[in-house]
Write a structure and sequence with these properties.
The complex is a heterotrimer of chains A (319), B (96) and C (267). Chain B has 96 residues and is α+β, with helices and mostly antiparallel strands. Chain B contains two helices and three strands. Chain B is flat and about 65 Å long. In chain C, helix 2 packs across helix 10, helix 6 runs antiparallel to helix 7 and helix 6 crosses helix 8. The chains are: A mainly alpha (319), B alpha+beta (96), C mainly alpha (267). Chains in contact: A-B, A-C, B-C.
Amino acid sequence: METIVEKSLEEQFEEKIANEIRIEPKDWMPDQYRKTLIRQISQHAHSEIVGMLPEGNWITRAPSLKRKAILLSKVQDEAGHGLYLYSAAETLGASRDQMIADLHSGKAKYSSIFNYPTLSWADIGAIGWLVDGAAIMNQVPLCRTSYGPYARAMVRVCKEESFHQRQGFEIMMTLCNGAPAQKKMAQEAFNRWWWPTLMMFGPKDEESPNTEQSMRWKIKRFTNDELRQRFVDMMVPQAEFLGLTVPDPDLKWNETKNGYDFGEVNWEEFWNVVKGNGPCNKDRIQTRVKAHEEGAWVREAALAHAQKRAQREAQKQEK
Amino acid sequence: MNMQKEWPLWEVFIRSKQGLDHKHVGSLHAADAEMAIQNARDVYTRRMEGVSIWVVESKHIHASNPDEAEAFFDPANDKVYRHPTFYEVPAEIKNM
Amino acid sequence: MELAHTTNTAAQSYSPELRELLFQYTLQLADTSLILGHRLSEWCGHGPILEQDLAMANIALDLLGETRSLYQYAAELEGQGRTEDDLAFLREAVEYRNPLLVEQPNGDFADTILRQFLFDGFHYLLLKQLQNCPDKRLAAIATKSFKEASYHLKWSSEWVIRLGDGTEESKHRIEKALDHLWRYSGELFQMTPVEQELHKAGFIPDYAQLKQQWDEHVAKVFAEATLEVPKNVFMQLGGKTGLHTEHLGYLLAELQYLQRAYPGLEW
């Protein structure tokens, strides 16, 4: 009896997915769908929050007041995006505290790209241009993802992100049109960020365990390799426009596939960074843990005060 | 005490301009209502998206049960007479 | 940035002396919001909770916006072809005119909140008056920033209350912050020769009056926060005349790094 009911719920769910009807928080959904979403959305939220750190590293050293204001508002946006995403995950029954605990314990992952250091001002340009460029490619399809709150959060994120990539490109353009020292700075940053950015699309399709199910459930809309190819095709002309050399000797236009052939990503490095051995993995998590732990007394105080106030008001009403 | 407790979750509704309804935009954490409104302002109106904010603690929201959605909402389906196009108006009659 | 293009016929008719005074004063206001905005921006990514991270960044951005309008106007008043960035990035520490309070390090959240609260009260009251400044540009900048400062004051006042009347630990921390920072509050209201001249000329309010209102607000908030207003504290002065604490040098070393390392480039 019970299995029959279960099956019909599952069928209804599959039907909604097939008909592009969004799944909403209180709707029945398979456990695995819920788990996959919590994992993906919280990972995404963590990436926004950890992603504040490499760029935040240059807020106090931004070279002009205009750049400082732009960078600060961009990093602040990332905090906002992290918040939207945590909210979306909370509609699935995950608590923010638990998600943060998982990040701090290493149980939850975040985008490996943020485990690389920002060594010069040009890195801020490179991150905006390349990393946000890659993030947008990943994110735009998510605006149509099957889970309603996630899709709505992503619409908001994408709308706000549109300036992020442009400001990065503008920084790169200014540097590339500037003094030789600036151009050098830009090329070096490009060299350092190009390959890690290509890694952002995730492992090769044949090595991506979650892709197939996620595609079926329309959580994901394109495969890792599809997006990576698109990204390369989009960025190479932009690099040429800037006068930057793509650090890939195997890069070549392929007329038959109407796209670029490019060299193999260093997957050993990729898996190493995923495993926690990137240049900044330890620092990033330590920084987050420190902020959270040092904030504990603040959060407690606010809660304690709210309770005192509520009690006082209740007493007033009794009188 | 409640040392480990998270700040409560609040749902945020924003009126984007005068004349429109408040619309649900998302949620956030805050220790009290005052802070929830301020946080909503800082989180959800950074680009002048609002002229008015409502917040309500999430636990106070009661929702219809999606399993009963058919019983709840389908009956309205056949009440075509609630829609203006149900009625025939002679062509001579203007402004109705 | 429309403020930058408002023609200011009054400024052209100023005597060289008055123009110089206004330049000095505008610079002082700009330095003040720059340094405090910079300090707040150091919190970005490190706040006690995500929601407050956003709140502090918003205040920093407000201050930075005010900073830019003020430096742009100061550069025009000076008329030497310097830009907002020249003024912000290419002066020596002794040339900065911000009060000592705003350059104090962030410390813990209680230190940051208290520094903000002491400043916000002053900022709010000053801008309220400056909206009527006969100098149209300063009045316009004040009008825009006053709205922002009203929110800042509300935010920091509520946090002082939460921390003061929160837990034992938060009370202890805000009292410690008070013990450290109160001594820098007097300078806000101590009028420099430039400020005295401008007050005489009818451009800026009497700070003694602002102080009265400030005292009232502080007393009200502290009462709610169950904090005592410190008495007989020796006040540290100097920032507004260029004698800073040791903290400013490090702040500027970071702030000015790229402009100093690569002179004369566009960014």
